[in-house]
Structures are given as structure tokens and as C-alpha cells.
User: Fold these one by one.
Assistant:
Number 1:
Amino acid sequence: MLAFVGCVKGNPIEIGSGAQDGGTIAIANCGYSITTRLGAEAPTLAVDAFGDDATPRLVHLGFVGDPKTSMVAQWRTADEVTRAGLVRYAKGANLTAEELTETAPGIQFAYESTGGESPRMHQAHMCGLEPGTTYSYQVGAHDPVSGASSFSPVYSFRTAPDIVAHPDTEVVIGSLGDCRNGYDIWEQLTTRVKTYDPDLVVFTGDAVTIGITQYEWEAFLGRAEPLFATVPVVFAHGNHEVNAVNFFSQFAQPGDQENFGVDYGHVHLTVLNDTPAEVADLTGKTVAFLRADLEASKAATWKLAMHHQPVWSSATAHGSNLTLQQAWQPLYDQYKVDLVLNGHDHDFELSKPMVGQSTQSSVDKGTVYLVQGGAGAELYDNASQFFTQYAEKTYGASVLHVRANQLTLDAFRPDGSTIPAGFTKSK
Ligand SMILES: [Fe+2]
């Protein structure tokens, strides 16, 4: 039970006093539902309180449905703001607030966190969008009683392209991981990733030191807001997220938010949780999901997988995860996954192309594994083993450029200098 007492128009109210065992709400305009986890309230459209400060904070984008036609805007307010708010949006870049002629209703819920906090999250789901199109939007809320309103700045985003209609379209994907407790570097890197004008950002886990502490999530989302308010993020759960309700509450994602597939441009990206609440899932349910997802997407031009812990790493802190080598790599081999994105070891390492325990002579013949846990967390020592193409003890991030016939990966340090290990594969 939450016990926060807020104040609306001078009248004390008790808010968030509902059960914290989660719940489901249908998102009518999108044809799907949102389910919150144990530790969070059931989501609702609107209750009765505007609250003293409805200023939207930590605005960030994600998606639950098809990224060609949908987008989810998410934001925080002061805990007592139970009026759900809305998103105002319209097709076009850099529009004024007055030009945002479409609206979609918001939902809201609070969740329990450390320090007696009950952060209140809001989501507004935009559906029926046009592919490959730029939209402007802002989020916020009206108080119909007082007439007060609080809205965010106007931001822009781009939906995923329709590659059937436009097969030559290039998609740009920024990739980062492991920023916990290192948010100056994190801000530097997210600022630099934004200069590449990415369509999508993927995060390989460990945003925070421990997932139940809200203040680090505030830094993670706040320092990256210029990027995350304009580019949707897909987040792979890391061990430091500890399956906390904070993680599940703040990131709307497809499926169960842990294991899901995304089609974006010519890429099929499989996202997996390699530290699930039930350890047995690693070699059980998750393997079954991975097999089914890769089987269903085997016609995809480019197959990428993303999860936190490295299948192949020579770093001395963690190194290769042998369970994943045994349980998951055979499926990467079988379905010829092109590239696997991992973090957990706080350095940079790109593997040679691998099949089983053997290095291959060409990227056409095996899967390449990227370890890049250098988005701000204290660095670990790198090393070099038989599978290492290049390793360096450095902070950094990567950008993927994906076209129908070519996938490239460029990695860089926070100062923008190039990490001298690239990945280019043509088909
Ligand atoms: Fe980790």
C-alpha cells in the first residue's frame, strides 16, 4: 500500500492507496493491453487529482506495437498527479504546440520504490501512424476544474520505414550499455549518438546500480532526455536491474518486456533477459522463445540479438558466459544470426565470426559478438583470447547503419575518436 498524501486545490487527499499487485488496461486505440507488475498499481485512465505539479519529466519514447505505425510517449510527474494526461501530436517536424491537432489519451500508475517514493508514470500510446514519417508531439495534462495545464516541450520522432514500399531505406541504430553510476560519460555518449540522427536506440542493460533505487533511474533518463524524447529505446534487462518493478514500469516494450522480437527496417532484433527471475528459464522457456522467434523471422535480411551478458568475452571481470554458449549459441549458429549485442563487461570487444567453439574466416560464415559495456560504469580490464578480433579498455558506444544489402557497425569513444574495430557485412 502507498501512503502518500497529496494536496489538490487545498484539500488533502490520500492517493495511490490501491493494491500494488499490478493490473491490465486495454489501449483501445491500439488494440493491445498494458500490464503492470507486482509492486505497481493497476494502470488507469484518470482518477481525480491533478496535483500541485503536473510538469512532465523524463520524457522518453518506446513502442509496444509495430514501430512503423505506433509510438509510446512516457513521462513522470510528481507522485500525486493521478490525472492521466495525454499526448498531442501531428505529422511534421518541428511543429508548434498549436499545430498538434491529434490527441491520444494517457494512462497512469504509481509503483513502489526505495526511500518511500512512489514514482508516478504516465504513458500515451499513438497508433495508426504512417511509416517512415516524422511527427511532432508533446505530453502533459489539463486540469478541467482550474483550467491549469502543464505540457512538455514539443519534440519530434520518426516512425520505422516500410521496407516493402521503400526497400532502399537505411536505418540507423545507436547501441549502448552499462552506464550505472557513470552518468557524465553516459550524457556525453548519448549526446554523441544523437548526432548520428538514429532511428532507434538499443540498450544492453545495467542502467543503474540496483534496479529498485529510483534516483539512478532519474539520472539515466534525465541525462539522456534529448535522445530518448526523440528516438525510441529498446532495453535489454541487465543483472543490475534485478527484475525490479522500476524497470518494468518505466519502459513500455513488446510482449512481456523481457523476451521479444522487433522488426525494424531490414533488421529483426531478438531481445532476451539473461538474468530472469526464474534461473531455470535461461535453459528452458527462454530457449523455447528464442527458437520460436528465430524460426518465425528466418526470412529477415539481418538477424540481430541483444541481451546483457556476453556469449564471448575475454575481459577479466566476467568473461564468456558458458551457460549462454551452451544454451543459446547453437540457435544463433543454426539461424545464422549476424550480430549479437552484449554488455556486462565494461570494455569494448568485437569477436571473430564464430560457429560453435571455432572461429571462422569471414563474417559470412559465422556470428560476430559485440561486448560494449562502456557507457559510464567503471571500466574493466580487457584481454585477448583466440576468439578476439579487437578489444580495448575504453568507454564508448556504437552506431549501426543497416540497408538491405549491407550492415555496418562503427564504434567510438566519448570524445568521438574511432575505436579501430569495425564490422561490415554485405549480402
Ligand atoms: Fe552486468
Note: Confidence is low (pLDDT under 50) at residues 1-17.
Number 2:
Amino acid sequence: MRCPICGAREPREPEPPRPFCGARCKEIDLHRWLIGAYAVPGEPVELEPREQDP
Ligand SMILES: [Zn+2]
């Protein structure tokens, strides 16, 4: 498993909302999706990609 948002290989929660490592990354993904709806679709958006490394 690898989180598509932060790239973490280990989940940060016991039961993370897959394919994310945690609810936080899921929200970030949602944010990106919403931002993409108003901006250029597919353009990468950097939103605190990672705050901790394994
Ligand atoms: Zn993550």
C-alpha cells in the first residue's frame, strides 16, 4: 500500500480510508479535486505533501 497523497507506505490510522493512509490525506485529495474543478484539471497541487517521514 502506498498513499497517493503523501506517499506514505504505512497507514497512520488503524483503519485508513483507502487508498489513503489516513482521513487527513483523504481530505487533501478531496481538496485537490475541488481545486481542480475550478482550476486546470490534472494540475498538481502541493498541499503539505508530507509532514513526517517513516
Ligand atoms: Zn497519506
Note: The pocket of zinc ion is lined by residues 3, 5-6, 8, 20-22, 25 (CB under 6 Å).
